[in-house]
Amino acid sequence: MGFVFSKSMNDSLKAQQEFMLMNSRLQLERQLLMQNQMRERQTAMQIAWTREFLKYFGTFFGLAAVGLTAGAIKKKNPGVLLPIVPLSFIFAYQYDMGYGTLLQRMKVEAENIMDTQSTLLELPKGQLTYEDLEKIRRSQSKFFIEK
């Protein structure tokens, strides 16, 4: 009789462990999906912000180019056009970020760094562990009583 009861308990325990494993895996998959969705939304917002900024900066750049060109012709001094050089670099960067291939090139370079220079990615003092967090929590806790 005890063997039947024991076998039933073992089967129940095994089923519960499998359920917990499946449940934790499902939770991890959901967390990964949520983190990826958040990253995609943040990247989309960054690209949208860049495109919106480009509209305003493009207008400013166009007006500045026309104004500086008119000033250079009127004063017969080509040095007046000098501010167009840095403004054009800023405009080109913003355009590349909003509509060009800058993000793809950055992704390729990031993958290259991860593959060939992974030591640059190491955290100071190594990866954070549970013990490190507990030590910090204990040092900052006002309610922790050392035994």
TrEMBL record:
Pfam family name, one: DUF2368
InterPro entries: Plg-R(KT) (IPR019319)
GO CC, alphabetical: plasma membrane
Any one GO biological process: positive regulation of plasminogen activation
Transmembrane spans: 53-73, 79-97
Alphabetically ordered keywords of this record: Membrane, Transmembrane, Transmembrane helix
Protein name: PLRKT protein
Organism this protein belongs to: Grus americana (Whooping crane)
